[in-house]
Amino acid sequence: MVDQPKTEKSLSSQLLQLPVVVAALGYLVDMYDLFLFSVVRVPSLKALGVEGDQLLPEGIALLNWQMAGMLIGGIFWGIMGDKRGRLSVLFGSILIYSLANIGNGLINSLPMYALLRFVAGVGLAGELGAGVTLVTEVLPKQIRGYGTMIVATMGVLGAILAYFVADLFQWRISYFVGGGLGLMLLVLRINVFESRIFENVKERQVKRGDLLMLFSSRERFLKYLQCILVGLPIWFVVGILITFSPEIGQAIGLSAPVVAGKAVMLSFSGQVAGDIASGMLSQYFRSRKKVIGGFIVLSLVFVLVYLLAPLKDVNTFYLVCVFLGFANGYWALFVTIAAELFGTNLRATVATTVPNFVRGAVIPLTSLFVYGKAQFGTLNSALAVGLLTAALAFMALYFMEETFKKDLNYVETD
Fold first, then answer.
1. Number of Cβ atoms within 10 Å of the Cβ of 174
2. Ranges of each domain in the chain
3. Domain 18-189+210-399's class?
4. Which positions make up the signal peptide (predicted)?
5. Which terminus of the chain faces fewer neighbouring Cβ atoms within 10 Å, N or C?
6. Which residue in 219, 232, 235 sits closest to 401, CA to CA?
């Protein structure tokens, strides 16, 4: 009993060291900027003269530009993270998306809006992967799950912050706030140190950040594909069900219109609890796979409730958004397992590209949704896409390696 306070102090001091805190705050700003568009989509488009039935297709087009930027940025920052270091990504990515989001507050046309969402997407792509990679490498394997849980939880709080800032201020000011927060965080990052594991690999003659290595081995490619597929249900929920909740609510026949910003805020409030729960459960069960599997099942259940239950009251609909968000709370575990599956010389490449390929998968998913909407209706189309993502995720998880106890001090070879 005498040693217990020392153990707790030691755990807290490791979890609250500067790289973990800065990675967490960086992801908070990242998620604020990333989901601010979902919150201000309707008012910003209306300010540019878009009305009525055009709000959905124009919103999807802008979202796709953002996701295309994240696809390209994910590859660029991932390679940079393994070649130059995790810190170079943390500095470069936040600078680009902070300036781009300030520019978003100054736009006066749809083409300019699309261009700046693309540039912001490129910048936003680097934050999570580099942060998670750094945290997994500086923390002991016994507490890595707690570290990435902190990062993910702070990120979700950033999405919630986006709702409240957009509710208090005009949409242009909300973009300025996001850009300003990012520039302020750059100052704090000056004192962050690189992981010792990466520094040791950097001194050796080892290929680093070689994207082709992911495709040169069948085993590595399958592991990489599994990582991407496991994350699809999260972004189906975020990119389709929540982002376009006003259109889905109208198709359901709710008693009042759905406010997209409120749906985003409530779903991410649920995700805060989900991220904490999944992180704690993975430490308790000493398994990433079991917990991820449970959350995918939970997500599928609430997707069915969201689309098929005879909901009429808008407040009940919002409550289901909270539960959907909770079931989405395995985002940190999904990125953590991607980082743990690969060696130090490819870890940042994988941890950065995988979440961005999942985010980028919103492009084909929304295309399927829009095509099915014209053929089968809004709800049936969303249901079909949701069942597809869940089936792919279950299949990938079944073949995935458990990484909870894995030592990360190793490299990938040709």
1. 27
2. 18-189+210-399
3. mainly alpha
4. none
5. N
6. 219
